[in-house]
Amino acid sequence: MTDDSEVPSGADLEVIKIAVNSLYLSLGFLLKYIEETNDKDVAIAARNALLENLKNGNIDFAIMEDRKTYDFVVSVVERLEIPET
User: Cβ neighbours of residue 48 under 8 Å, at least 6 residues apart?
Assistant: First the structure.
């Protein structure tokens, strides 16, 4: 598998926005799926673990090198809905 983690040079800003929004909706879908197939506590734990690992640098992303990008990514994850308990 190749490492495609870099945004291709010359990528259009609209394409990047679509990708970010798609990933946000995909994460939301995943949390909803976990909630429906397991329970709400598992979905809450998954979201919190993702956020904690992003903040602690346990997920090795290049976003850690740029504070503005890091803050943006963390804010997107923080906006993920927490299932109602």
Answer: none
Cβ(59)–Cβ(53) under 8 Å? yes
CA distance 16 to 11: 7
| Per-residue model confidence as pLDDT tens digits over 63-72 | 667 777 778 8
Whether the pLDDT of residue 46 is over 50: the answer is yes
* CA dist., res. 63 & res. 43, Å (int): 25
* Residues near 54 by beta carbon (within 8 Å), at least 6 away in sequence: 61, 73, 74, 77
Indicate the length of the chain as a whole number. 85
DSSP of 14-75:
HHHHHHHHHHHHHHHHHHHHHHHHS-HHHHHHHHHHHHHHHHTT-S--GGGG-HHHHHHHHH
